[in-house]
Structure formats: structure tokens, C-alpha cells
Specification:
With 127 residues, the chain is of the alpha+beta class. It has two helices and nine strands. The chain has two domains: 51 residues, 2,3-Dihydroxybiphenyl 1,2-Dioxygenase, domain 1 (Roll); 53 residues, 2,3-Dihydroxybiphenyl 1,2-Dioxygenase, domain 1 (Roll).
């Protein structure tokens, strides 16, 4: 069994797509738009076949994304090396994204950093 894809609603669909293409090398399909419901989405594909669906519709509730909450908390990207984690963390920080931890080796042995990415969503960068 494998997870087929993960999906997230976003306020700015085009900016979200551009974020994942720019920083994570995602490839995007063409936008799907249901004219009756106002629903729009892109499927973003990554090197290993993992897919992320980003979605938007006209009426959504945008609640605060407290880091210490229940539910889905972050999406993690394995970059392949500590050097790549350091480089992308520095690039994201330079581009104005908040680094909330790392880069560091965690107590359980992972080398990672965490940033607050688009629309306040936490993203983990790891080896």
C-alpha cells in the first residue's frame, strides 16, 4: 500500500503552485476548474512519483495554523543530503520565509529544518 496523494486547500492557488515548482522542483498539470462549484486544483508531481494536490474554492474558512495543534501538522521533503537541507533552508530564509528550527540533527537522528511556508503551513526539509 502507498499513499496516492496528499491534498491541501490554499487561498492563492497560483502562488502555491509556483512555490512548490520553484523550491521543490514540482511538475504541475493543467488547472482543473469546475465551473459549477468554483473548485479549482492542480496536481503537483515530484521526482519519486509523490503527488500533492493543491485546491481552492470560492468559499473557504481560513483558520489560524497553530503549530501545537492536533491533526496534520507538516509536509516533509527528503532532499537527499545535509548540504541540500542547508542550502534550501538558507534560500527560503533569504526569500523571507520563517525558519522555526534547524538545520540540526534531532534527538532521534534526523537532520532537518522546519520553515513556515506558503500561507502559514509548516514544511520540514530533511535528508
Amino acid at each position: 500500500m502507498k499513499i496516492e496523494h496528499i491534498a491541501m486547500y490554499v487561498n492563492d492557488l497560483e502562488s502555491a503552485r509556483d512555490f512548490f515548482v520553484k523550491y521543490f522542483g514540482a511538475e504541475s498539470n493543467n488547472c482543473y476548474h469546475n465551473l459549477k462549484t468554483g473548485f479549482r486544483s492542480y496536481f503537483l508531481s515530484f521526482d519519486d512519483g509523490t503527488r500533492l494536490e493543491i485546491m481552492n474554492k470560492s468559499k473557504m474558512i481560513d483558520i489560524a495554523k497553530d503549530i501545537d495543534r492536533t491533526g496534520y501538522i507538516h509536509i516533509a521533503f527528503s532532499l537527499g543530503s545535509a548540504e541540500k537541507v542547508d542550502q534550501l533552508t538558507a534560500r527560503l530564509k533569504s526569500d523571507g520565509y520563517e525558519v522555526i528550527s534547524g538545520p540540526r540533527t534531532t534527538g532521534d537522528g534526523y537532520y532537518e529544518s522546519c520553515i513556515i511556508g506558503l500561507e502559514g503551513n509548516q514544511i520540514e526539509l530533511t535528508v
